[in-house]
Amino acid sequence: MRRKERTISIAFVIAGAILGSVLGEVLGAYYPFMRAGLHFGVPDFTLQLGFMELRLGFTFNMNIGTVGLALLFLFFSTLV
Length: 80
What we know:
- The chain is α+β, with helices and mostly antiparallel strands.
- The chain has one domain (about 5-40, about 60-80).
- Helix content is about 50%, strand content about 30%.
- It is built from two helices and two strands.
- It has helices at about 5-25, 65-80; strands spanning about 35-50, 55-65.
- The protein has a two-stranded antiparallel ribbon with strand order 1-2.
- The two termini are about 10 Å apart.
- Pfam families: DUF4321.
- This is DUF4321 domain-containing protein.
């Protein structure tokens, strides 16, 4: 896989994940199973220095729509 194709595939997967999460949240009001998903990450870590406070952490929230559209966009990007 060439570099340009890989970049396009990654862009399609990220776009699918973003659109899927929005779609899953919107449709979750009508179809509750769309909100079911995984929530994982690293809790906040706070480093307090005398002159500043640094807080680091990340969380991934994935629902059915996120996974479905990310896989769909990955499949579509292999066709392009």
